[in-house]
User: Fold these one by one.
Assistant:
Number 1:
Amino acid sequence: MSGLTLNIICGGNKGFSLELDCKVSAIGITAIYGPSGSGKSTLLDCIAGLRQAEPGSVIRLNNETWQDASFTTPVWQRHIGYVFQDARLFPHLNVQQNLDYALTRRPRSGNIHLNQVVTWLELDDLLSRSTDTLSAGQKQRVAIGRALLSAPRLLLLDEPLANLDHAARQHCLRCLQRLSQELQLPMLYVSHDIEEVSQLADHLLLLEQGRLVEQGSLLTLCSRLDTRLSHEEQAAAILTARVAQHDAEYGLSELTVDGHTLLVNHLPHAVGQSRRIRIPARDVSVCRHRPLDSSILNILPVSVVEIEDTNAARLLVRLSLGSQYLLARITRKSCVELELCIGDNIYAQIKSAALLMETTDPA
Amino acid sequence: MSNAELDAIYLTIALASITTVLLLILGTPLAWWLSRRRGNVPALLEAVVAMPLILPPTVLGFYLLLLFAPNTFLGRFWQELTGSQLAFSFSALVIGSVIYSLPFVVQPLQTAFERIPQNLLQAAATLGARPLDQFRSLVLPLSRRSFITAASLGFAHTVGEFGVVLMIGGNIPGETQVLSIALYDSVESLRFTEAHRLAGALVVFSLGLLFLLYRRDRQSSWRVRA
């Protein structure tokens, strides 16, 4: 039985309870997404054993049971890496000693080397530093390194980037992406930031008020009209694209999405690499005929898959582009005047600047 | 300095050292337990630990004397175990001192333990540290200063003990006659030169120790502010 099996009931304060029964893939990064108070951190604490789930709960990773009706494995025997929002470095130890703390206590089977971790997380210059001289981003990278060196079977990350500024956040995100490629280490990543989630995650668990609302692949869930995700202000479709060529003259790069071409601001990535792009619904408009004299470069033939049924002023339209999906948020008035119907072949206009080039897609 | 005085100094240092070691051994788990528990039982125990701070030492000494008498369970048990009487012995002084100085060791440790964030211990647990390992690798080094404070206060307070010693130890030179008793004895018999020596030594010792502790705290708090 592969994957993480969770059947958890855990009471909390003020009538809050977490009740969840699901299986999570043991490959890649699974994001746990939801508003604050939805039970995301409680879930991680239960998995780690820092919080005792109620009797009868079952927590199992592959063939190893951490909790069931008859027993509970203590935290220190679960071999879980846990990266907290507040890095929780040990203040009386310097960076090197914090890393050693994990190394000396890990099971003998651990095969992640200090050198690798130092390289991946760019810690060379920090090793001899005292922890109170580190910036928030540096602390978090040390905390991630320390968790990795404990040779975990599962890495839990609880909003590790929440306290970081933009630059430090991007740095940490790049490091995490590299890790998920280099290591066969399943990760559970708690966040309430959809941008972070769409850059990192392969799978998604949507939590609300302690209950699992949706579960599935990130790319599918993001473009569905019936989830909470698509109704947020920054709702966006996530697509995978390949870098086709660079246009140095105009400072643009050309991507292909299922045979269609997208032009975006010049990218540093090599031709042929696969990338994940995020196209916000509010930056996509639709038209019946291809405009011939528009300043918008990206006008793609799409077909209408689904139209949101609502009385609000704006609605969402789900469009298929090859085998992938786009979301467009348009006014209901436009939808009526264009007489949009499911199956219509129309054109989607995407503002070039709206194409955020983000993440390496783990193949 | 007379032999009796040297004996008293030696006895005092021995008593204070043994008491301090015992207090650290007993006080550390007790302080840890008190720092991690909520409820009535720990509160009551905390009050019991703090009692020597406000109770006249003679009260404590009186009850201990009754407890150590040869006709009590403890007294008889001790007699059978060691072949000698418990009351008016050096061992009785050690037991009395441990109880009398307990708050001076337990309270600084408890405060230090309470300041150690639970979330650091959680992080250590996820890195594979068992509870005893967490204590050794995190709690001890993080509360090192408080251990030094606790040991110093426990030692100094035992050196300065009088009422309890007088009640349960009597005044046997070389066995139970510690410095404070020797001082009392010399004043009673109007040997003021000797009294000056002993009293002066105690003042210098106490002042010196407290000065070192407070200077250390002051320096570190300056460093934090800087």
Number 2:
Amino acid sequence: MSIVVRSVSKRFGDFVAVDDVSLEVEGGSLTALLGPSGSGKSTLLRIIAGLEWPDSGEILLSERDATALAPQKRNVGFVFQHYAAFKHMTVRDNVAFGLKVRRRPKNEIRERVDELLNLVQLHGFGDRYPAQLSGGQRQRMSLARALAPEPQVLLLDEPFGALDARVRAELRDWLIRLHDVVHVTTVFVTHDQEEAMEVADQIAVLNHGRLEQVGPPRELYDEPASKFVMTFVGDANVIDGALVRPHDVELLTEPDEAAMEAMIVRVTILGRDAKVELHDDGGAEIVALLTRERFEELDLWRGQTVWVRPQRERVFTT
Amino acid sequence: MRASRDRAGTALSLGFVTTFLTVLVVLPIAALVWESTKAGSQGFWDAVSSPESVAALKLTIGTAVAVSLLNAVLGTITAWVLVRDEFRGKSLVNAIIDLPFALPTIVAGLTLLALYGPRSPIGVDVAFTRTAIVLAMMFVTLPFVVRTVQPVLQELDPEAEEAARSLGASGLTSFRRVIFPNIFPGVLSGMALALAKAIGEFGALVIITGNLPFKTEVSSVYIFGRIESGDTAAAASVAVVLLALSFVLLLSIGVIRHFATRHDRA
């Protein structure tokens, strides 16, 4: 149940939402479309679902051309940021919708709905209306609803975006576990790089409608293909036109010819790490991340002058 | 302290509403009922059950129900077009919808007679027929369903429709199972208003219908006739029956609406 996106473009008036994007999503994988708002990630997801038409390019679902297919013919499950619950239906009827539309036998529908309500831990909530559920419960209901007709692919548009931090983290873990059980090819949109890193086994980074890089989270972090990816996925300092990760900034208490002078302006202890913020003589800000061990060893304090030696610098031409 | 002040506040506003409703609605209706009893129960029954009065009542209720059903369909389509479609002159059309409200209904009657009467410039003469009653009632009730459905459609979550589509529903199925149940209470509210207005309409009908007893005479015009001939007790009796029938109809619509919106109170 793979997804292939082949040079897809989409404009809204003068605004280029998706700009010649090609992407392959392997069957059974869990892929994140990551990017800032306006990067085209949601539009791309909606194009895959058939809720938006591309101006050019093709969409292949399970190796079959789906570009001209209406959304109801794609067998795609879609989960919206704001749940898109059918307010006038009970939880049970919401989940059963896709099966009723397909005219499945009544007892089959009942069994499948029960099974899904169990899966999303909403058994006992079947007779309630969406208005009686919390945000997290509503989103689990929409997930069950999307999964009910056994879609080829599951698409989620900022599924945790409307939830508070705790529920968000809970649902995130839960989505990973769900994917282990259901194994449906899943693509989700997020602007939160931590969320993408934590949940996805493949991340596609989008910026201004263009695909910047696709790869496993580790590859994006360790071998970013562009300046944008390096700064968007993880933190980075700009030192002398080169990009350096905070944990690759080495601090020395003695002058060194490969190092530049800087002053410590703030020290924050983050559990096992220490974050040291510095200003160089030009006033530019540098952030260094040290282990607590190294931090204690150097005996650093605010206002101290130290020497900064960047390791593994990266220079991007784009 | 807080609770008692809140209670006092509630009592005050409740008292205000009760007084207001009593003075404007309950007292006049009570006076009407009182007037209808002046001729005694036999007189009441005679006035109400006279063949001409029964014919007028049947015609009024029947046509008003038909008109509100027609309005439900046409008003919903109009609201749909105004909300979902983009076209030039949309705000003009939107403004025109309310015009029947601004026009004295007697002028509406005149206008309709000029257009669809014996000297019709377009050759359509429906004056003094039941078609004219439907036309006039449609004219004065046009805005109701449009104005009750429009805001509901505007607030409808477009994502719910998209969800329905992605779950395999065709456009028609998604309208039937997702959109319609949401706008249905609005349609019912509009229908109830249209029904009430149609049953009570006088001005728009009196000119164009010709008031032919047993044929095109509606209850309001019949009541007017009773008053003209000095029989106010009979007029009041028929009015009371008209009022009671309207009340029952409106109440039934209210009950259906109650069930159609149960998810909102959940």
